[in-house]
User: Fold this.
Amino acid sequence: MVNYYRPAGIAEALSLMASHGGNYVLMYQPPRAKHVKEWLSGDIIDLSEAGLDQVSVKNNELVIGSMVSIETLYRADAIRGLADGLLSQAAKVSATQAMRNLATLGGVLMNPVFPAEIILALLVLDAQVLVTDSATPEIRIPIEKFVAEANPKLPRGSLLAGVAIPLNEKLKGVLERVARTRSDTSIVSVAVTADGTLNNPKIAIFGASPLPKRYHAAESLLASNPLTEASIEQCLERIPEDTQAVSNYRGSAEYRQAMAVVLTRRALLSLKKS
Amino acid sequence: MEIKFTLNGKAVTCEGEPSDTLLDVLRYLGCYSLKRACYTGECGNCAIIMDGVLLPSCVMPAPQAEGHEIITVEGLSQTGQLSPIQQAFIETGAIQCGYCTPGMILATQTLLDKNRYPSLEDAKEALGSVLCRCTGYYQPLESVMRAAAALRGEALPPYSRGDDSVIMDEETKAKFSSIGKSEIKVDGAKLAKGKPVFVDDIELPGMLHGMLMTSPHAHARILDIDTSEAEALPGVHAVLTYKNVKRKIYASGGQTYPNPPPWDQVCLDNKVRFVGDRVAAVAADTVELCQKAISLIKVKWEILPAVFDMEESMKEGAPVIHDEPDAVAIADASRNKAYVIDANYGDLEKEFEASDLVVEQVYYTQQVQQTPLEPHIVITWLDEDERLVVRTSTQVPFHVRRIISPLIDVPVKNIRVIKPRIGGGFGVKQEMLLEDLSALLTLRTGRPVRFYFSRQDEFRSSRSRHSDRIRFKVGVTKEGIVRAIEMDMIENAGAYGVHGFTVCNVTGTRGLSTYRANAQRFHADIVYTNLPVPGAFRGYGGPQGIYGIECIMDEVAEKLGMDPIEFRMKNVVKPGEHIRIMDQLAEFDPVPQSVNSYGLDRCIEKGKEAVNWGDSRKESYRIDPSRPHIQKGLGMAIMMHGTAIAGIDMGAVSMKINDDGSFNLMAGATDLGTGSDTILAQMAAEVLKIPVSKIVVYSSDTDFTPFDVGAYASSTTYISGMAAKKCAEAIKEQVLERAALMLSVPKEDLHLAEEGVVAGDGRRVTMEEIALHSLHRKDQRQIAAFASHVSPECPPVFAVQFAEVEVDTETGQVTPLRLVMAVSPGMVVNPTTALGQLEGGQATALGYALCEEMNFDDKGDMVNVRFGDYHILQADEMPEMQSFIIPEPEFTGPFGAKALAEIPTDGVAPAVANAVANAIGKRIRDLPILPEKVWRALQES
Ligand code: FES
Ligand code: FES
Assistant:
């Protein structure tokens, strides 16, 4: 028999978790919904009233709680104002509105593979994942480290509090994707950001490797060069080296690799234009 | 655990475990408006409003409701009054089967609660959460806008887009009182209110759950099956396997007697032929117990080599899929050929030789699923007379009764099949799919059994559309006159041959009937493979044949340097012409067919004007210098689709008068959501000069309604409609006789008008007075009649489809911008429901063109069994759609009507393929037109 709890705050949540040993499930609903039976590996702890559903600005960072819905990620003004609305656009393409209402940022972080646009946006926004446990109010994990596995694990007794994104008013962002149809899940998607001077662009791609990831080698070729068509082409040459595309019915490995290049070019050129 | 929340304004306390979905708990509380359609949160048919937010209740553990405020559609009309949103959905024809309607209405409610002035984009965004397979979304989107205006207090003109789409002269319109009018659907209000009208919406005392154990292997023999542990599990009441079920060969297609060959199925076999095939069936107290029981069944398998490719399957040495000795009429089991079709006329070789240009190409179509939002479900029980009652979501109740009778050893007279409202069919329910097993479980246990398919089962184990390889060869003169057409195809029948021959027959017919030629040849091999079983899918072979012929006609025109429409119109069949290939292509005995009513030339003119044909194909239109990687294209296709099956399809209707002058109309025809109940009422109302509201339609119940073959082959309006007309005419005679008696005037001096009968001298009796007189006063008799109809003809419907697309030349992604269709369906009976048919059909066909495909792994297991992976189009990605209905009355049809439900599925794929070719100068010859295929074609240059 599985029990269901809805703690009224983080402290209550942590103490519930402590009292359950490892035998609990934190219910972060991803945009690719889980069947209810998939939540039943331990007592369910629903964090919807734990105070983790806020979007706020603290210390020049945008802090987004893990129980913030994907719909809020899409609509919140503070998020729309960040990097040309990159995270907001990523949220919009992640699921239908009804599912966006139910799914949370925590659900995305714990299931980063599919759909992956929100993770791509967080990767190029240099987000830090905020984890808390009864001993430490805030542990920061770079997003890149956190999503290095298809099924991120939280240390026992800790919970996902949210993410923190450094605020930079001048940051530009672009999301590009290809899909069978406009509202279908992406075959390949690319997110890029760069600051106002267009230095140090950041590139993240999904669909050309098993996990969404940053393309540091390609980025490095732009780090010390101005963003020109020539430098972009140079950078693009490095993209295939970092891909390990897997074929499926949406697209072959070869196509995915090619699209990683096409969409990155498009995104960088769009940044340059802006 | 105890859960407390507010449901539609009332405090509720109920029991629910975290393992229960909120959807199931709310349905248990009586909210039947919430539909079970996917359980993956991807279709929105189970949507609720919780604290003002739309949520999919199927993926929420029930305790999540604790402390919240939930609204369902039941809460919107608690006083019995329809809300403005419900009213708008009814008026705009946004409700077809109605399965998705509650979700759509709640999505609209949440939008309008926040936004009084929504844009069309806002509406698309809101309805994007709710999948609908019937409507194509435009009428629901109009409902949103109309409801918004109503809620703002604006005066609303009557909804008119249906009427506006009909190009008909005023004189013809004025001839009719009910025909040609956008009558509100007779089932609209109950569907808008989310009433419990579907199969699953009843609870019977002691009802068990039935479940199918399916094969994990594509091809295997069951050497032994041990059910002892499953049977020993408390709460398990019956387990069926090949060991304890009679072996009797049958074909599962809901087709007329005798079922077309081959007959190659038994209820449960000791061999499986595809992943998802039947292995065993269980009945238990709960769904979970069924699952547990299935996990305890031990099967000793002999895994056999499997074959998935239809060409490989015909080769010597390929695994033989049907080696059972009792199969009937398999063409060549040793080569996996279920059936072979040959038809030809004229001297093909001579005509090709005499041609100035011969073009030959191969086209491929893919296997796709009908995906009605309501999966297959049946509830069976024994009534007080120990007769078997089968309440099932079917298009063919009478065929189901006939087919299951010998399988379960119950005579037809002791079986009653009830078809309540059904949540879409599109052909997949033209089948006897679960009814035999559910019935057997009821007979074994003596208890009611609810047997259903999950969405995953629906994808893996129900039916689909055949994939084909079609080679076309066309010979033409340099003036553009077609001399010869050859069509050679292989149809992948999957593991069983049901519908294989008849679908292929239609593919051949539709591939060859549109254009005249001195010689034609058709050859088809219908081939077994170890893939899931195709069957009937709206269009029934037409989409495949028309895709091939309309692509190659475009290619020929291009090679001739001719305008594709001009080339087609030189060769298309004309009124009065005999369609020679149909002399040889038929389900039973061919009946010669000619073109009667036409309308194609008017359709072409209207469509050309709407898309600005001449200018829109020019380079200057196609290329936008500001978006160098985008190229636009415009393509078209001509379609011809039959109406009913000549000499086979039969429908019957009965009517009787009630004391108040209203009538009951009982039809065996099955309204799948298409509005056919309404159309039959309109036909009867037209004859009797009464409002449709005075006719209570009931369909279908094999105990009470007369026989009808069911809903398929675009036959209901034409066949059952004529039965309704004939029946009403017989009633009319009786009404006039009664009025003559009452008024003491000869019958000939009387005529029907305005719900009564009027004499030459102006005296009048109302229909109510006639009813009361005939039932209670003098020479009492029940005014009642019954009529049936079968037609020796299947008059073709003609249409034209245009598609405008944008192609991203770097990624290959094709974005549809606009679909324009013009059709001549004979006389249109109900413009609003007709428009819904056209738009819904085109939406399904657009998915066929661009994305839908059943994909399999190397073991033959379908990998995209979730809606999100398979992807049927959503409201927020629909292109602009414009449809024109151009009536040209058909003299063999009721009030001149033919059909229009299937033809909109025929032309979109070739029109899109031709538009892509127009945009990029490359032809994609296999469906769906995925970005990668376009990209590869572009790489070749
Ligand atoms: S049944 Fe819930 S979203 Fe489909
Ligand atoms: S009306 Fe939408 S699914 Fe049938």
